[in-house]
Amino acid sequence: MCAYPFLHHSTWDDGVTDTEWDQSETDTSNIMDAPHYKELARGGFAPWQGGHCLRMVLNGTAVSDVQEDTDFDTTTGNTIHIWFTVLIGADLSISDGDEIILFALQSSGSANDVVFGVDRSGSQYRLFAGETGATNTLNITRSNSRWYQIELTAVINAGAGTLDWYVDGNLIGGQMTGITHASIIQGLVGAISGTAANNAGTILIGGLIADDARIFPRERFPNETFWVTRDQTAWVGPCTLDAASVSGTSTNAVMTILDTDIFTSTGTSFSREPVVYVRNITANDQSPGFNTPVVFKKGAYVQLTGTNPQAWVSIKRPSDVVQSNARYISRGRGRKQYR
Predict the structure, then answer these.
(1) Distance from C-alpha of 209 to C-alpha of 205, rounded to nearest angstrom
(2) Which of 50, 56, 170, 260 could make an SS bond with 191 (beta carbons 3.0 to 4.6 A apart)?
(3) In sequence order, which residues have a C-beta less than 8 Å from that of residue 232 and are 6 or more positions away?
């Protein structure tokens, strides 16, 4: 059973790269950001979910990352599961033999114990996973619309560690065994290492989750009900909310829903008044929010506070919410940034 909330959950849906990470962004060449879907649409891209995602636009040898020093901690003899989504843009260009690490679990001294990334072998681009580099690989085609769901299951053990790597729920290359792990003390995501002078192109990372149980593939465009465990845009586009509820392990869980699809903690939507405000009054009880449909003109951004909060937001059909990659791009190219 997964912990609620997860050990770690990043959405990047406030437009900031390091809100949900202990260490500030390391990015001296400004190759990393968390753009809104309108900006992504200019290049023919769309986020995995919500209004934003993490983006790296490679520029030669430049590197970037955000680092978390607590949520990924795993001592030897224990297991950690990491889930995230990744898109390798059609414009990505790296040389034969180059590899770029995009996610890493590290032990003391910033030693890599689990890595995931993208490399090139001959003319073939590949995703890879391993202890320090490419042990298991998967051939891919670069695309501005193909998101991969990645899950890494690491049994941390000094000399007998294992790593299972799943893509879209399928185990790739069999279990990696005999890995010499040390206790994990940090996790990083970004263009962490392996860049070369002629590297260029776009890589996107969607939401990222760490937990003590498998996460499994998740639905990109929920049909009617969206489960929220971290602040994010549940629905992009006009919709009518039919129901909303919040729960938490104390009596202080609060869900606030704003009528916006462009939330940013530093932008104009930060001061928007809530359309829906719901609080639970009994620990571990799911408190219903309302029984009268509420109309949202732009989208529904859900904020959660309190002790271990989680929420459910449901919409009525039909609603004009984004339900495809193409709709993200057409809406992004057709709307103003703030309105």
Answers:
(1) 12
(2) 56
(3) 11, 13, 49, 50, 207, 301, 302
Q: In the predicted model, is pLDDT for residue 1 greater than 50?
A: no
Per domain, the residue ranges of the chain are 8-211, 225-321
The CATH number of the structural domain formed by 8-211 is 2.60.120.200
Q: For residue 135, give both structure tokens.
A: 């042990």
- Number of C-beta neighbours around residue 36 at 10 A: 23
Measuring CA to CA, which residue among 250, 315, 240, 239 is closest to residue 287? 250
Residue 293 φ/ψ, nearest 5 degrees:
-55, 140
Give the closest residue to 75 by CA, choosing from 129, 103, 113, 130.
113
- Give the β-pairing of 158-167 and 176-180: antiparallel
Mean pLDDT of the chain: 92
Tell me if 8-211 shares its fold with 225-321: yes
**Of 39, 337, 67, nearest in space to 186 by CA:** 67
Residue 58 has pLDDT above 50, yes or no: yes
Quick one: how far is CA 154 from the chain centroid? 19
Q: Which tens digit of pLDDT belongs to each residue from 154-197?
A: 999 999 999 999 999 999 999 999 999 999 999 999 999 877 88
CATH classification for the domain delimited by 225-321, as one of 3.30.70, 2.40.160, 1.10.10, 2.60.120: 2.60.120
Return d(Cα 184, Cα 105) in angstroms, integer: 6
Q: What is the pTM of this model?
A: 0.95
- Average pLDDT, integer, range 78-85: 98
Kindly provide the b/e burial profile for residues 294-323, where b requires at least 16 CB atoms within 10 angstroms of the residue's own CB: bebebbbbbbbebebbbbbbbbeeebebbb
What is the distance between the terminal CA atoms of the chain, rounded to a whole angstrom?
42
- Above 70 in pLDDT, residue 231? yes
Asked if the model's pLDDT at residue 273 lies above 80, the reply is no
Token code pair at residue 197: 């002078």
Rounded to 5°, the CA angle 128-130-131 comes to: 150
